[in-house]
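Reader question, answered in our methods column.
A reader sent in the components of a multi-part assembly and asked whether the whole thing could be modeled at once rather than chain by chain. We filled in our standard form and ran it. Here is what they sent:
COMPLEX SIZE: two components
ENTRIES:
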Amino acid sequence: DTGVSQDPRHKITKRGQNVTFRCDPISEHNRLYWYRQTLGQGPEFLTYFQNEAQLEKSRLLSDRFSAERPKGSFSTLEIQRTEQGDSAMYLCASSPGTGGRGGELFFGEGSRLTVL
Amino acid sequence: AQSVAQPEDQVNVAEGNPLTVKCTYSVSGNPYLFWYVQYPNRGLQFLLKYITGDNLVKGSYGFEAEFNKSQTSFHLKKPSALVSDSALYFCAVSPFDQTGANNLFFGTGTRLTVIP
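And here is the structure of the entire assembly that came back:
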C-alpha cells in the first residue's frame, strides 16, 4: 500500500501521560498536514510542513503539542501531559508540491486518542 | 476569515433517487472548494473540486457539484443514489495562503444514508 500510513491506529492513555503519533506520507509528497477531528465535527487544521520546515501552526496547537518532520519524510506529533480534551482522531495528510491551493490532500486513516 | 456551513447533519434518500448534500461558504477572494467523503474506518477521500471555469464540476463515483457564486453555495449532487454512497461527506474551502499551501477548512459534515 503506497498511501498515507499512521501509527498507532488507536492509543488509550491516562491523563498526564505523553503520547506520540507517527505519519508516513506518500513518498513523493513534500507537503504534510496534521488535522484533529472530534466527534460530530469536521477535521480542524493543526500544522503544516513543506519538506522539513514547519510553515504554519494553528492556534489549536497549544504548547503541549509539538510536531516534527526531521528529514522531510515521516512526521511525528507529540502531545505532552495529555488532557481528556485531547481525545480525538488525529489525521495526517500529504500532497505533492505542485497544485497549490487547488491540490488534493491524501489522508491517512487516522490515529484515535482516548485519554482516560 | 473563511467558513463552511453544512446545514444538514443527516440526509436520507432512497436508493435510485437523486441526492443533494448542501454546502455554503464564506471566503475572501476566489473560493477554492472541495468535497471529501469519509467511509467507516477509512481515511477521507477526495471527491471533486472547484477552482475556476464551468460551474458544474464532475468527480469520482458519479458525483457532481454546482458552484453558485451569488448564493455562495457548492452543493454536492448525484442523479441516482446507491446504498454504497452511504458515508460522511465534508465540504471544504481552501483560503489564500502565502506559502502556496493547500490547507483546508472543513464543514461539520453531513451523514448520508441511502435506504435500499
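What stands out: The radius of gyration of chain A is 13 Å. The mean pLDDT of chain A is 91.
Send us your own complexes using the same form.
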